[in-house]
Amino acid sequence: MAGNGTKRRRRRRLLLSKLYTLTCSKACFKQDHSQIGTPGFSRVVYCNEADSPESDSRNYSDNYVRTTKYTLATFLPKSLFEQFRRVANFYFLVTGVLSFTPLAPYTASSAIVPLLFVIGATMVKEGVEDWRRKKQDIEVNNRKVKVHRGDGSFDSKEWKTLSIGDIVKVEKNEFFPADLVLLSSSYEDAICYVETMNLDGETNLKVKQGLEVTSSLREEFSFKGFEAFVKCEDPNANLYSFVGTMELKGAKYPLSPQQLLLRDSKLRNTDFIFGAVIFTGHDTKVIQNSTDPPSKRSMIEKKMDKIIYLMFFMVVSMAFVGSVIFGVTTRDDFKNGVMKRWYLRPDSSNIFFDPKRAPVASFYHFLTAVMLYSYFIPISLYVSIEIVKVLQSIFINQDIHMYYEEADKPARARTSNLNEELGQVDTILSDKTGTLTCNSMEFIKCSVAGTAYGRGVTEVEMTMGRRKGSTLVFQGNESDDMEYSKEEIAEKTTVKGFNFRDERVMNGNWVTETHADVIQKFFRLLAVCHTVIPEVDEDTEKISYEAESPDEAAFVIAARELGFEFFYRTQTTISVRELDLVTGKRVERLYKVLNVLEFNSTRKRMSVIVQDEDGKLLLLCKGADNVMFERLSKNGREFEEETRDHVNEYADAGLRTLILAYRELDENEYKVFNESIIEAKSSVSADRESLIEEVTEKVEKDLILLGATAVEDKLQNGVPDCIDKLAQAGIKIWVLTGDKMETAINIGFSCSLLRQDMKQIIINLETPEIHLLEKTGEKDAIVKASKENVMLQIINGKAQLKYSGGNSDAFALIIDGKSLAYALDDDIKHIFLELAVGCASVICCRSSPKQKALVTRLVKSGNGKTTLAIGDGANDVGMLQEA
Q1: CA 391, 393, 394, 399 torsion: positive or negative?
Q2: What is the pLDDT of residues 197-206, one digit of tens each?
Q3: Active site residue 431
């Protein structure tokens, strides 16, 4: 049974490590492994020997996790400390204590009862909020996982009962209950796919691989008698490092982050894994990264404290002046043996009106006056605000407009302390992909052999059409343009990930096109160049795809819908049903997969090397335009000009584009490459990655261009309206994205971040002078000229702002990543901030994660106001932490 329990799936056992040239490499000892056993690397784990004396003698933490602010023992002292941090509460505590003395002008109960009510009400509110956290902890700690009980069988146990060294079985779509060392999986070579969204926000799946020596342990009974000894680093907060060794049957094997499965990440695209518990509870990396719930105090609370200080100063001043006058008058009360104010009966008083001890009488009067004037400070001020905050939280939790139906998730105010901070936000810094957009890709257009295909209209194009007042028309030949409403467009979309319509290539019509051979290679590349895994529903025989990213799935689905169905994979082959150009019939073709050079953010491309049924060796490559065009051969640029134009048009329409190209390899060339890549992969030197990069650079060149794909990442529902309302509230919005400038600008229009009446201040380095310097000049000259150019553009922008009379609503600032690097230099950044703050909207394009964090820091420290950062990916973590 598969993870969801509703459909039966069929999947071949695969040796997927064969697919991953860069990610999966043979484990090897590195310099860090020599530190095992030294301080910081002293953890010892006896796997599958939970009851051994050695395990019991080590005081490792249990797997119970607590995220609450208080415990039963600390609730009273900690919450009382929290209450008396407030100036007014402390003041009333002092006056309450004094009210028990004869100095009090009122009874003690009239001072103490209101204070107890205020403190009690706030403590109850804190207790209720912490109890909600406690219930969440109970739910997490009571989750079940299968644990080996020692005789080759597995029983379900609660997470909180796990111990170091336990062998656990985690099934598809389940979370890992602790930090585990991966032993084996449903795949024969111990590969598994992991989603780390809870750790770093990244939705793309990560590939992990167990050691070869444990990969055969794929059945529950295999663990009867299994014993291993692990030595590794001590608990730490670094999510991306792990150093350890596993001793098994007398041999030692190195452990790396590739074998570590972190608590709170999720198993995906893999039926099950077996793992050994290494870190539990508060020793796990995710908990090490979390901090204790802080005592958050809002701006209003801090402001109230200042007001209370002022009022307290006024009360003390009034009491002091009054007591000085009282002291002087009391001292002068007794003259020549006669009492002036006999009616006060000072002769019967002990101290209060004794003329002989006027200074002491004055001090006592001061204390009495302080108590009497305490009503200037409203004791109900804090509790009134607490009640308002609690009611606000209830309204937020019950707000039907903030309910997300698709995921069945209502809004949750986890603490009421910071409600009003939402109303203090001055600047919002947001990521685009997955935040403003859905991160749900749909194949909508493509350019093949210099011809644009796809008559679909994107949301951005609809918005642009409305701006220009034109009718919404599907693109096509002038003779067959057809008008559609948005509703009709939605109705035609029936396949998730596929929103492509063009009768010239659909239903096999592409065979009649001029460049049918190029179209065939284009769609064949989409069907073969990927790491997707097909799953067959045993009931319906329908194929679904498990992909590492939404883009990958969209490409494979598009290839299938257009006649190139990828339906079967083994560790070394891919099977595709495709249309034969000669016979016109659907045939099954087998492609032998020799290497996969995976995509990463540095390479910005992905390649596979395959051998077809005729014995031809093909390198199929897809990647970003700025990386791919420079890798084309001289005779492979036939359609370059038209493809570049189409890519720019797609960017204008807010689409994400990839360039597709290929080349044929001869056997000798491939033999040399394969030997080099094997040698680089097995290298144990520190520059292993650069060696691999060098080898791949040599083969991914002299490519022949086929065309470009364009996928749409639709806007989240309600984004334009939301941004409109935020703008009306005077909140400045910055979008930080890795997209091209044209794409970002057009998405800015479609989500109402940019408006037609706005003046765009564009800062980039796309000038002939800079291009000329980049071709001929030295690095220092380029840096100097670029910096001066950016500075000049910023000054010109400020001049435009000044000329407009400082009307920020009329301006939008758009800056690219290269320019941003210079704009964030110490000597320019404050001028850049002045310009940016003067604009209603700011878009930073092609920005790196570090730049996102630096921009956030600049905004937060520069204007000193509340800054809100929103993001969903690993590249947003720095930005979120800075805010």
Answers
A1: positive
A2: 777 656 667 8
A3: yes
